[in-house]
Amino acid sequence: MIKLTKEPPYGMGETACLINAVIDTLELNVDKLSSIELGKISNTVSQMYSMKSINFTPDHSVGKLWIATVEYVEKMSLDSNIVDTILNKANLNYNYLTQNKSLN
Predict the structure, then answer these.
(1) CA–CA separation, 5 vs 28, rounded Å?
(2) CA dihedral 11, 77, 59, 1 (to 10 degrees)
(3) CB–CB of 2/14 below 8 Å?
(4) In degrees to the nearest 10, what's the CA dihedral of 69, 75, 76, 82?
(5) How many Å apart are CA 98 and CA 91, to the nearest integer?
(6) How far apart (Å, rounded) are the C-alpha atoms in residues 91 and 21?
(7) Distance of CA 103 to the CA centre of its chain
(8) Over residues 3-27, mean pLDDT
(9) Does the N-terminal or the C-terminal CB of the chain have fewer CB atoms within 10 Å?
(10) Measured in whole angstroms, how far is the alpha carbon of residue 100 from the centre of its chain?
(11) What H or E segment, with its residue span, contains residue 50?
(12) Straight-line distance from the first to the last Cα atom of the chain, in angstroms, rounded to the nearest whole number
């Protein structure tokens, strides 16, 4: 189960699922990830941050990208219901990923 915590390690799959859930729930004008590649994950997190004019130094460490995504959600000061929606979507995305070996 995916949780919104800064404690890595998390795999690239979980990270991609969380990022897609954030993009979907917050209706960000950023393309969702269609594949699990470290460079694409880093670029997508960078795009999310730049949309909100928040400084972000691109990184190619899964743990640091996970933490950056969690911090992004925290910086948005979202209502707890929205955070719950993000987590529910992330877990649904991850279940789909584990069953179908692809992002939805």
Answers:
(1) 22
(2) 0
(3) yes
(4) 60
(5) 10
(6) 9
(7) 12
(8) 92
(9) N
(10) 19
(11) helix 38-51
(12) 17
pTM value is 0.94
Q: Calculate Rg over the CA atoms of the chain.
A: 12
Residue 87 has pLDDT above 80, yes or no: yes
90, 18 Cβ separation under 8 angstroms: yes
CA atoms within 13 A of residue 8's CA, in its CB half-sphere: 17
Cβ-proximal residues to 27 (8 Å cutoff; 6+ apart), any chain: none
3-state secondary structure of 87: helix
What pLDDT digit, counting tens, does each position of 22-73 carry?
Answer: 999 999 999 999 999 999 999 999 999 998 888 888 888 999 999 999 999 9
* CA-angle at 77, arms to 29 and 53, nearest 5°: 45
Q: Kindly state the tokens that stand for 96.
A: 């789909």
Question: Nearest-5° angle of CA 32, CA 38, CA 40?
Answer: 35
Give me the amino acid identity at 48: M
